[in-house]
Protein: Beta-glucosidase
Organism: Lentzea jiangxiensis
Amino acid sequence: MSGFLWGVSTSAFQIEGAFDAGGRGPSVWDAFTPVHENQNASVACDHYHRWREDVALMTQLGVNAYRFSIAWPRVQPSGKGPVNAEGLDFYDRLVDALVDAGIAPVVTLYHWDTPLELEAEGGWLNRDVADRFADYTALVADRLADRVELWIPINEPAMVTLQGYAIGEHAPGKTLLFDALPTAHHLNLAHGRAVQVLRSYDAQAVGTANNHTPAWPATPNDVAAAEAYSEIHNWLYADPVLSGRYPDAVADLLPVAGGDLATIHQPLDFYGVNYYNPTRLRSPSEGNPLPFELVEIDEYPRTGFGWPIVPSGLGEMIAQLRERHPSLPPVHVTESGCSFPEDLHDAERISYLAGHLEAAREAGVRGYFVWSLLDNFEWEAGYSQRFGLVHVDYETQVRTPRDSFHWYREVISGG
């Protein structure tokens, strides 16, 4: 597969630690308390200090691409104003090291760590945040655009809206249900503004990383429930980016101003799909304010997180995207992975990745990024879930490659 990107993914908040280093400001996740056993990411994998060791691990693994995120609060502590030079210097050194190692830097500009001061002003409920994001994008692009090979403005906007603002499982912990929908539009608008900025700095390639899940009706009578869920989870984000329109079911609920959809609908060089599992839906029970209810998918094996393992769902989702958007750009699987207990002999992870990689290749994707290089801080689940090809002892910070690491290296070397 000539030109295929064999990669791994991480995110800044989940691995960097060093909350107080280099002038970093607080993010919404610093202040979010409902996490597993009151754990926090103040140390995490200490990647901020151990990044050279982690680049060496990637070199040993043999990947030719590394998807990582830049912490907005490390570059712009309050989310606006001048750059924090020390914070941006950190990413400058990391990008140089990756280039020197022959690993393509794939930069995500926002992976959920909104500067806390911006959240106090409304966060993604406030339309102005799209302008602030464009300003931040310019600061990063001015320094890194000459070496970064792929850019992803926003990671999984659906999860920010649904889990962060609608049901409160993620930071900032709001439970607004349908009143959270303005955040979806503002996230999409910020994406479009960022793409425009990146193009002005001659960015090499710009795309997305959207979370997608096939929506399965529990019975033939539940098709409408599955379609409603898919509109909110999948098409609310894919449609405006790819076709300049919103799904009819939600279009009237969004604060769209003149010119917004043209701004959002920017040409993309690739489309990133983050896939973990399908979702099964049924019609809502009495008193449920939502037009659907989730149903367990119990006929498949599960990950340590309890997620059903369905590799065919990846191909199913990519097929749906291509059918709905015939001009879909080349697809990268920008996240694919699983949590299992911390044993170094992780045959279950190898089986999971083998199945999903086969599905990805059958779907004709251009790249596959394993989530994740390292065990890390898994958001509201704290350190209870381990996704890494590399085991991390959080007490000593010792990194130990798992069997899946060696397996992936062999897969990569075989092409």
Notes: The mean pLDDT is 97. The chain is about 40% helix and 15% strand.
